[in-house]
Amino acid sequence: MITMMRTILASTALLLLAGGGTLVTGCGGDAAKKPAADPAVVAEAKQVWESRCVTCHGPQGMGNGTNAKSLKTKPRSFKDGAWQKETTDERIKQVMIEGGGAVGLSVEMAANPDLKDKPAVVDELVAMVRSFAS
Ligand code: HEC
């Protein structure tokens, strides 16, 4: 009898643990799929965005940076929901690292070859581009 009680108690504890775990990941939403981004990586991605991308793409990715007027091809607004849906993270990464020319877009979108060795920063930049969707 005591053994049975112990087993029941133990399995209740396990169930509680499992339940707790589910709750924690449940609250994380998307973050549950991958570990939270390293703050240093997030800071570096922000710094890259602000120093290299905003001039053309604008602070909110609307394609209205101070330099955009002088471009032959205007960058699209990253708020464009249809584009957000149809494009892939892989393509966004390729454009960022290899430049627009690599995927048949304007070469005014320059390559950033140094980002090739920083996949975590690139992932975070993709997340930033995705976050502009309205
Ligand atoms: C000199 C201006 C300029 C800078 C700086 C620049 N871009 Fe671009 N970018 C463009 C232009 C122009 C296009 C659109 C090319 C086209 O549609 O043919 C583009 C396109 C893109 C696209 C693809 C959008 C699509 O239509 O599929 C992404 C993603 C992107 N840029 C991200 C970035 C990021 C991230 C940075 C900073 C690392 C950056 N760009 C820096 C001008 C720039």
Helices and strands in order:
Elements: H1 2-28, H2 39-57, H3 81-86, H4 89-98, H5 119-131
Bound molecules: heme C.
Heme C binds at residues 48, 52-53, 55-57, 67, 71, 73, 75-76, 87, 92, 95-96, 100, 105-106, 108-110, 112, 125, 129.
What can you tell me about this protein's structure?
By secondary structure, this protein is an all-alpha fold. It folds into two domains: 1-34; 37-131, Cytochrome Bc1 Complex, Chain D, domain 2 (Orthogonal Bundle). Helix content is 56%, strand content 0%. The protein is built from five helices and no strands. Helix 2 packs across helix 5 (119-131) and helix 4 (89-98) crosses helix 5 (119-131). The protein is elongated, with a radius of gyration of 22 Å. The model is unreliable at 19-26 (pLDDT under 50). The structure holds heme C. Residues 48, 52-53, 55-57, 67, 71, 73, 75-76, 87, 92, 95-96, 100, 105-106, 108-110, 112, 125, 129 line the site of heme C.
